[in-house]
UniProtKB/TrEMBL annotation:
<protein>
    <recommendedName>
        <fullName>Bacteriophage Gp15 protein</fullName>
    </recommendedName>
</protein>
<dbReference type="InterPro" id="IPR009660">
    <property type="entry name" value="Phage_A500_Gp15"/>
</dbReference>
<dbReference type="Pfam" id="PF06854">
    <property type="entry name" value="Phage_Gp15"/>
</dbReference>
Length: 199
């Protein structure tokens, strides 16, 4: 589903589980929380399932009976929101180094600048508990911010992204200063590597 489909038919709020539609938690808060859960950790999957489906602390019976199918459908629904703005060419990988690329955005570390940009550009206070917004609407607005030159989110992502091609010494120094200013907290792997170097 792309942005035009969402505009024409509305943002989806159900997934099919066992051949029947089941409502997902379509609010942006539940889905931001889902973004912070490590999908590679099998023990975290029940939390992800609760995050995407639970109502009043309980899973719908159909979801509980078909947890694997339900989780796959809900994650696919959730991830589809990332494709609402498809501009430019995606840069994947760390240049063939075999290392995981350094993240350029983190929901937890960047929450304040996301909130500030929503307030500044859209007049929406996402920190207000009364603010309700569908995940797909939130992501359409968020993805636009990542491409808005004077948005804080855009500046942070740009500063953390690697320079491409040959650059002058001045450009490299400026990029280094920006990267330092907008640096994310070290990842767990980086902390482990730093500890190994120290001893």
């Amino acid at each position: 589903m792309d942005a035009l489909d969402v505009i024409l038919t509305g943002a989806p709020s159900t997934v099919e589980v066992g051949g029947a539609p089941v409502p997902v938690n379509a609010g942006f808060r539940a889905n931001i929380l889902a973004e912070t859960i490590d999908r590679g950790d099998a023990s975290a999957r029940p939390r992800l399932l609760m995050c995407l489906f639970a109502r009043g602390g309980e899973l719908p019976a159909k979801v509980a009976r078909s947890a694997g199918e339900a989780l796959a459908e809900a994650v696919s629904w959730h991830d589809a929101a990332w494709s609402l703005a498809q501009y430019g060419r995606g840069q994947r990988g760390g240049g063939g180094s075999g290392r995981e690329p350094r993240p350029v955005f983190d929901w937890r570390a960047d929450a304040a600048i996301v909130a500030a940009d929503f307030r500044r550009f859209y007049g929406i206070d996402i920190m207000d508990p009364a603010c309700q917004m569908h995940w797909y609407r939130f992501m359409a607005l968020f993805l636009a911010l990542t491409r808005t030159a004077d948005a804080l989110v855009s500046q942070a992502v740009s500063a953390r992204s690697p320079l491409r091609g040959r650059r002058s010494k001045e450009e490299r120094e400026l990029k280094s200063a920006q990267a330092s200013f907008w640096a994310l907290p070290p990842t767990e792997l980086e902390l482990i590597e730093e500890a190994k170097r120290a001893f």
